[in-house]
Amino acid sequence: MAGLHELLGLSSTADPEQIRAAITTQRRRLRRRVTSPDIAIRQDAELAMQRLADAERGLNSSDSTLAATAEPTSPAADAGPATNSPANPIARAVAQLEQGQPGVAVFTARRAVQADPDNSYAWSVLAQAASASSDHATATDAIERALDLDPEDARLHALRGAVLHSADEPAKALAAYQAAASLQNDEPEYRVAVIEQLIAGGDVDRAITTAQHAYREQPDEGVLRTALARALAHRAYLAQHELADGRLLITTKEQARYVESLAGRGLSVASSDPTVHSELVRHRDYACKASRPRFSPAALKQNYKWPLGFGLIGLAPVCCMWGAFKPETDLLTKGLIVVFALGGLAVFGAAVLRACFQPQYEHNAALIEQSEPRRMGRLENAPSKPSSAGARAR
């Protein structure tokens, strides 16, 4: 009993309800450590999770005999040979997963659940291993069994989302991620998983709304800022037309403004992901470029009459310019000649600009008419599945 109380940070007089509450609190604290990139930290957390599961089973079996059934009394023997020993199938299955041997890990994890069928963590390891092996049926059954044993564990719901996503069941995966975020709303990774699943399912507008709500609640969380920026970047991508060769095109002024607005909003949240940042900059710069006028030979060929006509009209006052330099011409006449000549040149220049230059998006619109796009962009409330091509440089 002393070892269990010491592990949970409780006094020796704690009642079973206090012990259960402490086990739940301790488990939540360990969840982040289980996903740590440091192998030593992760393994320690996994062993601690195993000990907590043992303690909870012992507590459920008999409150009065907790000391005899939950854990050994000394810290040295706390983990027990079945947990710390290399022969422990759960630890070996986790190690095999880390070594890139999911098939072997499935076999080892099966031994773990056969030896201890009431261990939710063992079932979750089996689910991870089976999913990594593309055995989606086994993975789904295993994670459902784990959740039957521990339905309030947000980590298990998130794992269920990952398993179902791998099994190509996006609606169920989204529901699982939402359940995880609901159970542990202060964990940003679960909220990010919801956002990314919405993006993967094509509901990008809803992903943006969800990401904005999460960002407002936790503005200092870098992963949430990046998730919002990624959702906005993907929406900017979907708002543009995509040709068969992968080029993205903007064909209207409204489209250019919309893409520029999305990119600006994404840049304003200051994502720490350089890939997302560069994609947003690329979308913003191209939206600005699409609104700039450029010389178009096709427009000149179609509208040549306007610059030609205004050019002939402007030629008359220009031809009179020589009279402004005669000594006998008075100052007022000289001024009028110069004004009319400059006005004629200005009108000619305006006609050339109006008839021979056009915004880039108008040129793109003509290009769209002459080709068969892979995907047509939409401005808002039009979710569509993301293309595999991704955004390419113009």
Compact description:
The protein is mostly helical and 394 residues long. The protein has helices at residues 2-8, 16-34, 39-61, 66-69, 81-84, 89-98, 102-115, 120-132, 136-149, 154-166, 170-183, 188-200, 204-217, 222-238, 253-268, 274-291, 297-303, 305-319, 331-356, 360-369; strands at residues 241-242, 248-249, 293-295, 357-359.
Q: Mind explaining what this structure looks like?
A:
With 394 residues, the protein is mainly alpha-helical. It has a domain at 298-358. Helices cover 69% and strands 3% of the residues. The protein is built from 20 helices and four strands. It has helices at residues 2-8, 16-34, 39-61, 66-69, 81-84, 89-98, 102-115, 120-132, 136-149, 154-166, 170-183, 188-200, 204-217, 222-238, 253-268, 274-291, 297-303, 305-319, 331-356, 360-369, and strands at 241-242, 248-249, 293-295, 357-359. Strands 1-2 form a two-stranded antiparallel ribbon. It has a two-stranded antiparallel sheet with strand order 3-4. A hairpin with a 5-residue loop joins strand 1 and strand 2. Helix 12 (188-200) packs antiparallel against helix 13 (204-217), helix 12 (188-200) packs parallel to helix 14 (222-238) and helix 18 (305-319) packs antiparallel against helix 19 (331-356). It starts with a helix and ends in a 25-residue tail after the last helix. The model is unreliable at 62-86 and 382-394 (pLDDT under 50).
